[in-house]
Design goal:
Residues 10-254 form the ABC transporter domain. By secondary structure, the chain is of the alpha/beta class. It has 13 helices and 12 strands. It folds into 2 domains: 3-221, Rossmann fold (3-Layer(aba) Sandwich); 251-335, no CATH class. The strands form 2 sheets. Strands 6-7-8-3-9-10-12-11 form an 8-stranded mixed beta sheet, sandwiched between helices. The protein has a 4-stranded antiparallel beta sheet with strand order 2-1-4-5. It binds iron/sulfur cluster (SF4) and magnesium ion (MG).
Length: 342
Amino acid sequence: QDVILKAEGLRREFVTQKPLFGKPTVVRAVDGVTLSILQGETFAIVGESGCGKSTLARLLVRLIEPTAGSVWYEGDDIARLDPRALRDLRKDLQFIFQDPLSSLNPQMTVGALIEEPLITHGIGDKVQRRARVADLLSRVGLIPTHADRYPHEFSGGQRQRIGIARALATGPRLIIGDEPVSALDVSIQAQVVNILEDLKEAFGLTLVVIAHDLAVIRHMADRVAVMYLGEIVELARAEDLFTAPQHPYTATLLAAIPIARVGSRRESARVGPRQERAQLDGDLPNPTAPPPGCRFHTRCPHAQARCSTERPALRDLGGRQVACHFAETLELTGLDGADAAR
Ligand code: SF4
Ligand code: MG
């Protein structure tokens, strides 16, 4: 499988200044991420809010600039493209936002919103563009007359479909969704996920999906990267990650999946015990002063003395990558066979 997008040593710092007193502090939202996205795969990036996954997503398509590192696409480092080349890049790499209402201009009709990227990139004449808008609407399960309405006239799920149609307009090769279904009712999430998967199939897309919740991506993802405080701690094939996590943080995230959400009604009785064992000790540490050694050591049930001083590198371990000193010896619990297959 070919690599479509490759990040190398990607870092992004934000400087935050407390208003009255206090020195500016630097947050490394993304701190040295290297990964490759394969052509045609669904790649998921998961972690708690504040772990840097949204920042990483924006860096991958250069919605924001890196402090250091590169993102390679078609032989170019997109972190260094000039504005014109960057505009062309937008055709190929598109972004879907978490909250469709805030990302869609409320003054524009749905038709105009979907047509806008076509005009920007000089695609088609007016008649062709209108036909393309109608086709895109039907592909996301809306009807052509919806083109004359405004975003506020639609439900959250429909608005996200409008966002998807707009992202598809230029015929992209890769779409990144930042929590594309998190703002939606659980009952609607599956619909939108199904639409994304159908479109991926129909257009041969590569998908990158950001999620804080592993339940959302467990049926979609081919590979999963788990982030903690700006770093990737585990990267593996989805099947391996779900059934046999090798980083304690991954195991904790898996334990937090409420079975009832993704399973049958019969399973709802099991939500209690599973959620109980999902407790993470304490909050995410302050990202301006991440813990020394392994960043997860303040919350890790398996931490040993070495973990608070020695930083574990992301190592190759039988077809996956793990950043834990004890990855080989820990026996971590994933989803059992029945849970994982569901
Ligand atoms: Fe836990 Fe230590 Fe592994 Fe970090 S290196 S995940 S603290 S066992
Ligand atoms: Mg986010």
